[in-house]
């Protein structure tokens, strides 16, 4: 009876199945694979629902979860979680150099305070603050970037991004549409291929540039230079007094342009665009008063 028992224990060890939980895992330099304390650790979880914890002494911590619902708590130098089943959770505290989450089915949660945080989430994910798919260098969370150069990739749509004045370059790429960018950086860009995006740039911004392929975007720009390229049409651009250059390029047509900048330029290649300004409204009101005055005097 001892031999079959020994064989069973050996089989459980090789397949990564412990008494407390079921998991298929390979871990080098540590045991059990759910708690890795040294070396390079890789956790393979085809059944889903696996938990992995790596301490600060670990150099590389990798978890591959094909059925989803896995949990990775990583304090290693470099952390990576590949979740093809969705619904995974990854946490990287301060002290981690690089933290990367791949979530192909969506529904993942990403809580990252590492030096470099990267999230590739095609199905839509959440971080500690908002729904976002992001890559952010020099800041976290990616939805609120406070220094360095920040880039947010949003394939699922509906992402929010805010960059403070300490940021040099703030870039949002939104393929799913319905994204919002509030940018106070030196230079701000928003590429919206899904349409329905909103971009706001205050006076402190030097360059505010939005490209809207899907149409239906809004740009409220108070910066020095404002540009909106709208290929899908039905976009709205507003530039108040104090802006030096305001340029709307509307190839899809049906755009609305309200400009009080020093230099206002509207290229409406698709036609049916509207143009207005506060000065024109004031002139219209003055003309009405003059007309009424003339009627009263000469009546």
Question: Describe it for me?
Answer:
It is built from 2 helices and 28 strands. It has helices at 2-15, 278-298, and strands at residues 26-27, 35-36, 39-45, 51-54, 58-65, 71-74, 78-83, 89-92, 98-103, 109-112, 116-121, 126-127, 135-137, 144-145, 148-154, 160-163, 167-174, 180-183, 187-192, 198-201, 207-212, 218-221, 225-230, 236-239, 245-250, 256-259, 263-268, 274-276. The relative contact order is 0.05.
Tell me the β content: 35-45%
Tell me the Rg in angstroms: 27 Å
User: Would you identify the regions where 5 or more consecutive residues have pLDDT less than 50?
Assistant: 1-26, 128-141, 280-294
Q: Give the biggest beta sheet.
A: 14 strands, mixed
SS elements, strand count: 28
Number of domains: 2
Helix tally equals: 2
SSE blueprint:
Layout: H1 2-15, E1 26-27, E2 35-36, E3 39-45, E4 51-54, E5 58-65, E6 71-74, E7 78-83, E8 89-92, E9 98-103, E10 109-112, E11 116-121, E12 126-127, E13 135-137, E14 144-145, E15 148-154, E16 160-163, E17 167-174, E18 180-183, E19 187-192, E20 198-201, E21 207-212, E22 218-221, E23 225-230, E24 236-239, E25 245-250, E26 256-259, E27 263-268, E28 274-276, H2 278-298
Parallel strand pairs: 2-4, 3-5, 4-6, 5-7, 6-8, 7-9, 8-10, 9-11, 10-12, 14-16, 15-17, 16-18, 17-19, 18-20, 19-21, 20-22, 21-23, 22-24, 23-25, 24-26, 25-27, 26-28
Antiparallel strand pairs: 1-3, 11-13, 13-15
Descriptive keywords:
299 residues; 14-stranded mixed beta sheet; 2 helices; 28 strands; disordered N terminus
